[in-house]
């Protein structure tokens, strides 16, 4: 069985949930696991699951974001399929997150740039996930900057090896770049009240983390709210 788990995204001011980042998980109602290979999922599978999931979500959770690895992101079929279901996901605003995971084969810049423009032209917001980690480094950010709406900085990617204080220079860099380039800036990895107080000083637009909301098994059409399971 394939289902979405969702971690709530919070606006910073006011601090309130506004949407979910969606994660694919495989399993049963009693046991779920991270898929070993996300590339095996087709655009149709993901889109059909979105159609089942979106209508069952709370009305205040207007924003949904789907993670795509780069090989999925550059495949025109994914964009075409998401365009085809926009009227079926209950007025939710769908964003596309390009993950930091590397491809098995190098992707030419012009292909990645064309894919990003394709999503923008189709009125999807494009999010660069985990900037400063994996392949989503400054070079890629500069390449795609004209077609990207949001940077996400994952504090948890630098833990436990570094303290929050040690991460501050990296965080400050990406925060300043987001402001300079007029991008939405999201901080992930808010895992304690201390984190929340410290990270709020950066006036990010959005916040995510365990202290705000852990991932939950999202319902689909036909489920009751009692079927929600917290991780």
TrEMBL record:
Signal peptide: none annotated. PANTHER family: CYCLIC DI-GMP PHOSPHODIESTERASE PDEF, SIGNALING PROTEIN. It comes from the Bacteria. It holds the Pfam family EAL. This is EAL domain-containing protein. InterPro entries: Cyclic-di-GMP_PDE-like, EAL_dom, EAL_sf. Transmembrane segments: none annotated. It comes from Pediococcus inopinatus. Residues 1-229 form the EAL domain.
